[in-house]
Amino acid sequence: MATTLDNERQSGGKKVILAEPRGFCAGVRRAIEIVERALELHGAPVYVRKQIVHNEYVVRELQERGARFVDSETEVPDGSVCVFSAHGVSPQVRANAAERNLTVIDATCPLVAKVHQEARRYARDGRTLILVGHADHEEIEGTFGEAPDRTVIVQDADEARRLELPPGAPVSYLTQTTLSLDDTEEIVSILQDRFPGLTGPGTDDVCYASQNRQNSVKSLAGRSDLVLVVGSANSSNSVRMVEVAQDAGARAHLLPDASHLDPAWLDGVTTVGLSAGASAPEILVEQVVARLAELGWADIETEVTATETVVFRPPLGLEPASARAADTRDDSAELLARVSARIEGLLDAEAAHWGSVDARAAVPVEAVRELVAAGGKRLRPTFCVSGYLAAGGTLDDTAGADAVVAAAAALELLHAHALIHDDVLDNSPTRRGVPTVHARHARLHAELGWTGEARRYGEGVAILAGDLAFGYAHRLAGGLPAQARDIWMRLGTEMLVGQHLDIALAAEAAPDPDLARWIAVCKSGRYTIHRPLSLGASLAGRPDLQAAFEVYGLAAGEAFQLRDDLLDAFGDAAATGKPAGLDVSEHKMNLLLALAATGDAEVARLLEAGRQGDFDPAALRAALLDCGVREEVEKRIDALVTTARTALDTAPLADGWRERLGEMATQVAYRDR
């Protein structure tokens, strides 16, 4: 396709301008991959609630492979596998699925899940929620279901002008992710004029892919006599693209596939602009290009208006699996699903208990629950269950499996404690793409005009929520055997001491490569990989693996931390979910900075100037880019991954686990978030 479309071909002046980006977005790719992986793992049939994405071609392809699409979860046979579509579902749908004992696989787009989370927050804060979008769209139905008694739907500017709410009521708004950006801005502007104090999400809800595709067709409209958008009629973002092109002054049509192309549309047309909605596969674009060539429009020009690098990974256990490691991944996925259920059950029960006392009593529980629900890499639980399975532990050993689930759940809640407190220490405004606990509650304090200092209140809520997560973690770990409990206590202590040294070096602003490396080993090598692996192996009764897991874990963990340092200094905030350059801005003397300072005079000079009170984070980041430390650290990461893999060469691991753990070392060392 690339060679066909990227080479220009002369055709008497008739031309096609092909938009880039076009077609599948990250959320659509992820949703389709989830159904494909579910079919591979569970076999046909796999039931999918609604269309997985709004494209008839995609649905037909998946049907042929064994997917069964249903309108309601109540149509799915009890105990079957059910995939929720990319558009999200309401809490009632989840409850219905639980009653039917369905194995649920959630393909909700992470950007839609973010809107659901925001809806729950606003409702819990006692705010009326204005939901901007199309009432009959599945995404709006799902979001509305989060708080139906506090939510009103506004579909257009006229409804925004007519909306009546009680005077003085606290009001917030959220939007459907696939709307026209221009229409959304108009509606929100009207609402802001009508309801002073209206608050909204920290970032636009209209997804990056919808924005990019709308911008691309605006550009096409200015250069084309006709704009064609490949997409199905029920695809909201495809329909919006057609409307955007028409609003920009072009003739435009929605094109489900090449067979719907009417040659009469081309009368008097010299230039055709061609794009595709976020749920339209590239093969349909290829077919339209071929049909246009038959009709005389064979000169292809590609117009790039944005570059998309966002990738949304499938849920744990559904990532691509090699044949040799398929069994290991199945068992891991099962245990990790139990870990999630254990955490959710604990936090749901706690939220219900304290919420019955008073809504405010449940606030710290909800803060922990929201952070855990927002996703994250789940590395510590993954390495814990991996250590158990690699050591020969099985799902059939009920006591062992239950113990490793409790340990892995405890690790995730301990990590939630660390993250909530770390965000306060680092003064970070976002985590996993949403406001941090202290930032959100400080903003709430300010918006509602409460007494006292907003920042102090927000940090107080965060400290207490982190402490609560710490307590829940120890509650889950309380029943572990003595040897496992000893490993548990060590990893918690190492993490906290490493955290203290981290802030001590930042306060002193003195680069110390040896101590910075020790901090990386404590906070990542031992805490993230070595101790969780050892904990799992201990629960499988395999103390003989401790030495190999220590070498592997320390090397892979240091590589993980170095990648974290690189992502902070040079990464994309949209991918990582937190601001770039935060370590530099907060004077953190991580290993990357320490290595750069010892090898580059300009970096050392800027750090010394910072110690004297003349701190210039922008200049320091620029110096880091210029000094070559990035290449040095990449080489160091390569060596560490080799060390980690080599440590497993003679270790007596269960079948498939040497290869699997080797892959995991590579994944943590070369990730992009």
UniProtKB/TrEMBL annotation:
Cite the binding residues for isopentenyl diphosphate. Answer: H54, H87, H137, S235, S236, N237, S279
Q: Which residues bind dimethylallyl diphosphate?
A: H54, H87, H137, S235, S236, N237, S279
| Active-site residues (renumbered) | E139
Which SUPFAM superfamilies does the entry mention?
A: Terpenoid synthases
What are the protein's UniProt keywords? Answer: 4Fe-4S, Iron, Iron-sulfur, Isoprene biosynthesis, Magnesium, Metal-binding, Oxidoreductase
Q: What does the entry list as the binding residues for (2E)-4-hydroxy-3-methylbut-2-enyl diphosphate?
A: H54, H87, H137, T177, S235, S236, N237, S279
Domain of life of the source? Bacteria
Looking up Gene3D superfamilies in the UniProt record yields:
3.40.50.11270, 4-hydroxy-3-methylbut-2-enyl diphosphate reductase, catalytic domain, Farnesyl Diphosphate Synthase
Q: Which GO terms describe its biological process?
A: dimethylallyl diphosphate biosynthetic process; isopentenyl diphosphate biosynthetic process, methylerythritol 4-phosphate pathway; terpenoid biosynthetic process
Q: Which reaction does it catalyse?
A: dimethylallyl diphosphate + 2 oxidized [2Fe-2S]-[ferredoxin] + H2O = (2E)-4-hydroxy-3-methylbut-2-enyl diphosphate + 2 reduced [2Fe-2S]-[ferredoxin] + 2 H(+); isopentenyl diphosphate + 2 oxidized [2Fe-2S]-[ferredoxin] + H2O = (2E)-4-hydroxy-3-methylbut-2-enyl diphosphate + 2 reduced [2Fe-2S]-[ferredoxin] + 2 H(+)
Question: Which cofactors, if any, are listed as required?
Answer: [4Fe-4S] cluster
Function text: Catalyzes the conversion of 1-hydroxy-2-methyl-2-(E)-butenyl 4-diphosphate (HMBPP) into a mixture of isopentenyl diphosphate (IPP) and dimethylallyl diphosphate (DMAPP). Acts in the terminal step of the DOXP/MEP pathway for isoprenoid precursor biosynthesis.
In the record, the note on similarity to other proteins reads: Belongs to the IspH family.
Q: What protein is this chain from?
A: 4-hydroxy-3-methylbut-2-enyl diphosphate reductase
Give the species this sequence originates from. Answer: Actinacidiphila paucisporea
Query: Which gene codes for it?
Result: ispH
